[in-house]
Structures are given as structure tokens and as C-alpha cells.
Amino acid sequence: MVTPSTELGELASPSPYTVNESLLLGMAKPLSELIKAVSKAPVRRTLTFKGEEYEFWMTYLTLAQRERVRQTQKDKEDSNEFALRLLIDKALTADGQRMFSPGQYAELKNEWPASELEAAMLQMIAPTEEEEEATEAETDPKPSRRQSAKTDF
Questions:
Q1: What is the pLDDT of residue 16?
Q2: Distance between CA atoms of residues 107 and 69, nearest Å
Q3: pLDDT reported for residue 32
Q4: Per-residue model confidence (pLDDT) at position 15
């Protein structure tokens, strides 16, 4: 009589891992490759205010960073507070130093126009047009010239 365990054993190659461990190891490889493929280099962002351009740098936003910022909020429903705290947490100078300190929250809140804060926030959570175009070019499903050639059978 063939049981599922003996049938699996006959089909599978000898391995020191259980089926569940093998599945986890199989998933870990693509995950590690995916994580390695993500650029961790700071990205330049710019804002134009009263005709002058200002720049800041940031690394990509992770869900953990977003959650950490949300936890520091006094009013969890206030999107402006979230935007300002996110900017304080993520904005960097060109040499990689934090641009703002948490102690500057009140000053930024009182002195910075709301429209500029919203523009900065959008830049922090949304890719730029150039980034979108680069991503689209990398994932474009159009076949290459060689792949699209017809084959006669």
C-alpha cells in the first residue's frame, strides 16, 4: 500500500529538510534576491517654493517606517501631522545627514505653508515620473525583436 508519505518520499530527492522546511528555504531565496535588488541609495527630491528650488534626499519608505511615524502621532487621523512627522523622519541632506530634528516639528508646522508640506509628502510616498518610467522600462512585457520573430513549423 502506498501512503502519501511514502509516495512523497519516492518522488522527492533525498533531503535533510522536511517538506515545510524545504518550502520555506525555497521562498527565502527569491525574497533575498528581491531585497538585494531594491536600491537603498538616497533619491534626490526637489520642491519649488516662491521660484526657488530646494532639495532633500530620502531612502525608500518601508511599512515599518510608516508605522513608526504613525505611532509618534498625537492625532492618528491627522494626515498633515503624519506628513510633517514623515518628512522630519526621512528627509536627508546631500551628505546623508538628517535634515530636521523632531524638536523642529512646531517650527515647521507653524512656518511652512500647508501646500508645500503636502507636495513634500507626495514626493515621499509616490515615485517621480522618471522613477515610474524606469520601472516600466524594466518590467515592460514587450518581447524583444528576437523573441517576436515568427517561427514556421
A1: 59
A2: 18
A3: 81
A4: 52
- List, as own/partner pairs, every contact residues 15-24 make where C-beta atoms lie below 8 angstroms and the sequence separation is at least 24, other chains included: none
Q: What angle separates helix 114-125 from helix 79-90, to the nearest 10 degrees?
A: 60
Per residue in 85-117, pLDDT (tens digit) is 998 999 999 999 999 999 999 998 898 888 887
Side chain identity at residue 49, one-letter code: F
Domains present along the chain, CATH in parentheses: 43-125 (3.30.2220)
Look up the pTM and report it: 0.60
Q: Which residue has the cell 500500500?
A: 1
Would you put residue 50 in left (φ > 0), alpha (ψ -120 to 50) or beta?
left
